[in-house]
Structure formats: structure tokens, C-alpha cells
Amino acid sequence: MKLRSFEEIYALAAARKGGVVALENILALTPSLPAGDIARISDDRVLAAMTRQIFGAGFSYKVIERKWPAFEAGFDGFDPHACAFMSEERFDALLRDPSIVRSARKILAVQRNAQFVLELSSEHGRAARFFAEWPDERYIDLVHVVRRRGAYLGGETAMRFLRALGKPAFVTSPDMVAALVREGVLSRPSIAKRDLQVVQEAMNQWAASSGRDFTTISRVLSMSVGLPPASAERPWEAWGL
Q1: 26 with 20: CB under 8 angstroms?
Q2: Contacts of 7 by beta carbon, 8 Å cutoff, 6+ apart
């Protein structure tokens, strides 16, 4: 697959965001972690990361942030054993609790995902070790595993969960997909399974040529969409091309 260099795409994003320094400051907000650091994340924090993304999907993240201490208390600090074996009384109490988001399906998803975390912990010694040791070049296969074995982790949610853990992760947001269409990676705005494999191949190429991780590449692609307003007539000058 013949691709435009990542450096050129980076220049587009930098021009839109006010320069390299401004762009790097934005990218610093979502750092990836070394595999060893990811592997040390406790099971309760893995479940908490899943839950935060699930409840945040289609909802205001500011509301979830404000309510998060209540989530921590309501779900026993996301202890996987406590959540996996939640009693009916506890479930009913959570449904009546106005301090959290009262979604029966999402509360049940916490219970099912707690079981998923316990399974991974039993298989790998710690759930996070499974995610840490998965090879980046097969990232999309990991997304499929999370979607299949977890609950309420479809769409972008599985990807955002992996990114929240610190795993290098691309997220197929509308802006990123638009950039992939522009770059000729995709022929249309589609994220079907076969398209995701094509995206994986492109991301592998950009990562190998640039030394950047998937999180950085994904975010730069997203931020490269559109022209800087002040340079619409002569965009190449702003891009440094």
C-alpha cells in the first residue's frame, strides 16, 4: 500500500492546531504506556476503565467525571469479585441510585465485564498482562476479542478502553475515518471488519516509518482533517510543503 508519509500528515495537523508545539501539547494528553507499566495495572482499574468508557459512550463525559466518585462507591471500587457476583438487591439499589447513571443494561455490563476480567486474570495472572502482551501490529484482533468477550464494548468503546489503559490504540472516529478516505486507505467512510484490517496495515506502515505509536498516529490523522481557516487559499505555506 502506497501511503503519504506520516510527516506530511503531521504537518497538516500542526497547521490546523496552531503549530508543532500546540499539537504536541494536545498529543501529550493521551500518552501510551510501556507494556511493563500496563501489565502492572490492577484488575479493579481495568474494570473501572471499561466501565468509564461504557457509561461515557453517548453521554457527557463531564457528567461521568462529576459522578465518578459515586460510581466507585456504588460498584465497590470495581472489585471484580464483588461486581461479578452482584446480588439482585445490589442491582436494584444501583438502579435507584440517582448519584450514578441509572442504565440497567450498562449496570449489567459491569457485572459481565467483571466476569471477563476474572477470566483474563485466571488465564494470565492479571487481566492487564493480557492487554500489555498483545502485539501492537495485531491491534485490531485485540479489539475483536474485547468486543466478543466483553459486554457493551462495541463500536469505538473497545478502542477507547484500550487507549485509556495506555495501550497504543487507534480509534475510528469520524474525523480519523475521513482522513483515511482522503489518504486512499479507505474508499468510503466504512469500518466493516475487512476495512479495519486494511486500516491496521496502513497504521503498521506509518508506525514503522515514523516511530510513532498508534495513539499518536490516530490522533494526528483526526486533527489533520480540514484546512486552517487563515490559509485556505495557500494551504501549502502553512503546511510547510
Answers
A1: no
A2: 210
39 alpha carbon, distance to own chain's centre: 17
Is residue 70 a contact partner of residue 41, using CB atoms and an 8 Å limit?
no
Per-residue b or e along 63-79, where b marks 16 or more CB atoms closer than 10 Å to that residue's CB: ebeebbeebeebbeebe
Summarised one tens digit per residue, pLDDT across range 92-143 is 999 999 999 999 999 999 999 999 999 999 999 999 999 999 999 999 999 9
The pLDDT confidence band at residue 158, using thresholds 50, 70 and 90, is very high
Nearest alpha-carbon partner for 38 in 161, 167, 159: 167
Q: DSSP readout, 87-108? A: -HHHHHHHHT-TTS---HHHHH
Q: Which of 126, 123, 158 is nearest to 36 (CA)?
A: 126
Q: Which 3 state secondary structure label does DSSP give 80?
A: helix
Distance between CA atoms of residues 72 and 178, nearest Å? 37
pLDDT band per the 50, 70, 90 thresholds, residue 233:
very low
Query: In this structure, which amino acid lies at residue 144?
Result: H
The answer to whether the CB of 79 falls within 8 A of the CB of 55 is no
State the cell numbers at 227. Answer: 484546512
Taking only the tens place, the pLDDT of each residue in 54-86 is 999 888 889 999 999 999 999 999 999 999 999
* CB count in 10 Å sphere of residue 80: 24
pTM of the model: 0.91
